[in-house]
Design goal:
This protein is an alpha+beta fold. The chain contains 14 helices and 19 strands. The strands form 5 sheets. Strands 3-2-1-4-6-5 form a 6-stranded mixed beta sheet, sandwiched between helices. A 4-stranded antiparallel beta sheet has the order 7-10-9-8. One of its GO terms (molecular function) is tRNA(Ile)-lysidine synthase activity.
């Protein structure tokens, strides 16, 4: 016999019972109303984390202005505290997508370390998501539809009703005489999901009554397959995660040789996994740029431009440069107090070890044709010395050079031993970290 809805939910919630707090994303609609009622009932008989509700007010339609008071009334009757968050939805593009982004941004603000945010998506939502993404030509990760759980801020987002049908939720709501909001926009078939819900699924279920549960089950199988591909990607990336030749350069990077040994499909799988936290991933048509980067001659310095940055190749290594990497000023700077580090706008910090040379000192960036005195080697062309060092070209334009008048006194010691002068001081550059490129 199938367990009751409340018993089924209790089993699903078992891994999360030691969380510091539980939050329910409470729109006031059927799904979240049933979920909140279920959790409030459980709290009367079970020892659960503190429970609260969060209502996000988008302000996109006049009817929505009455929803916060309805949600407050429901929460008061259940003795559940409610937070109402008002958000601004950015215009342009998909209204559904912009509203969703604003909503989840609000959710990250309330979800503390280890805390759980519950949302009310159910089996029908999962089936709609799979079909919608299938029609858009999504890859396996997209076809895995909505995960039952995923990280959210410092906590977790959990969907405990994915195995429950909308019909079961309606039956529960009617049995307990619950009141919920009917969003007028849910009837608007101009929205793709509504079109699927009202026009497509009734036809499918008339011919195949188990279409919803079958599609939801397919999403589970695809999610499991994606998990296996993620494990394979981690294995392949482990082989490519070799120490970078410039550890002070805080940029994500991979050795290219181990990736070359893989099939094309495994290369793409590994790179998708590696790039996912860094940028929006390219569609299938743009992977030809990966082949061009991979197969270019060693001295070609190819670049693959992606949505949120660039993938560079320097020799036999791949480097990720976020879009913010190029945001620095190459204007000359006077170094008035060389006893203290010099802040380089958008380019980190420069400092001396040992006794700084006599001034006045100035920091400039490469223009071409620079020559420097190298201890034991005489005057040498800076470009040739940089080539010898193997320093990636995308770094060279940011390399701070120390001048006194028109004399190039020194280059940071990280660029190679040749840059260490003999006067008892060294110049050290700490480039700006690129953590802002990690999402």
């Amino acid at each position: 016999m199938k367990p009751t809805l409340i018993a089924q939910l209790l089993q699903t919630l078992a891994p999360w019972r030691n969380a510091p707090a539980w939050h329910v994303a409470f729109s006031g609609g059927l799904d979240s109303t049933v979920l909140l009622h279920l959790l409030a009932c459980l709290a009367k008989t079970e020892t659960l984390p503190p429970l609260g509700a969060v209502h996000v007010h988008h302000g996109l339609q006049a009817a929505a202005d009455a929803w916060p008071s309805h949600c407050q009334s429901v929460c008061d009757s259940l003795r559940v505290p409610l937070r109402i968050l008002r958000v601004q939805v950015r215009p342009g593009g998909s209204l559904e997508g912009a509203a969703r982004d604003a909503r989840y941004q609000a959710f990250t603000q309330v979800t503390g370390a280890g805390q759980v945010l519950f949302t009310g998506q159910h089996r029908n939502d999962q089936a709609e998501t799979l079909l919608f993404r299938l029609l858009r030509g999504a890859g396996l990760r997209g076809l895995a539809a909505m995960p039952a759980q995923r990280p959210l801020a410092a906590g977790y987002l959990v969907r405990p009703l994915l195995d429950v049908s909308r019909g079961e939720l309606e039956a529960y709501a009617n049995e307990h005489q619950l009141n919920w909001i009917e969003d007028p926009s849910n009837a608007d078939s101009r929205f793709s999901r509504n079109y699927l819900r009202h026009q497509v699924f009734p036809v499918l279920t008339e011919r195949w009554p188990q279409a919803v549960s079958g599609l939801a089950r397919t999403a589970e199988h695809l999610s499991e397959a994606q998990g296996l591909l993620d494990e394979l990607a981690q294995m392949d990336l482990h082989a490519a995660d070799q120490s970078a030749p410039f550890p002070w350069l805080h940029l994500p990077s991979l050795a290219l040789a181990p990736l070359r040994e893989l099939s094309d499909a495994r290369q793409r799988n590994a790179l998708r996994h590696w790039l996912a936290p860094l940028t929006r991933l390219p569609d299938s048509d743009h992977w030809a740029s990966w082949h061009s980067l991979r197969d270019a001659k060693g001295d070609a310095q190819p670049v693959w431009r992606l949505a949120d940055g660039e993938l560079h190749r320097s020799g036999e290594r791949l480097w990720w440069l976020p879009a913010t990497w190029s945001e620095f000023s190459d204007a000359s700077l006077g170094w008035l107090d060389p006893q203290n580090p010099l802040e380089l706008p958008g380019n980190g910090q420069l400092k001396f070890t040992g006794n700084a040379p006599e001034g006045p000192l100035q920091v400039r960036y490469r223009q071409g044709g620079e020559v420097i005195e190298v201890p034991g080697r005489g005057r040498r062309d800076l470009k040739r010395l940089l080539n010898e060092s193997g320093l990636p070209r995308f770094v060279r334009g940011r390399l701070p050079l120390l001048y006194r008048g028109e004399q190039l006194l020194g280059v940071p010691s990280i660029a190679g031993r040749w840059a260490v002068p003999s006067e008892g001081w060294q110049l050290h550059w700490m480039p700006q970290t690129c953590d802002q490129g990690l999402s």
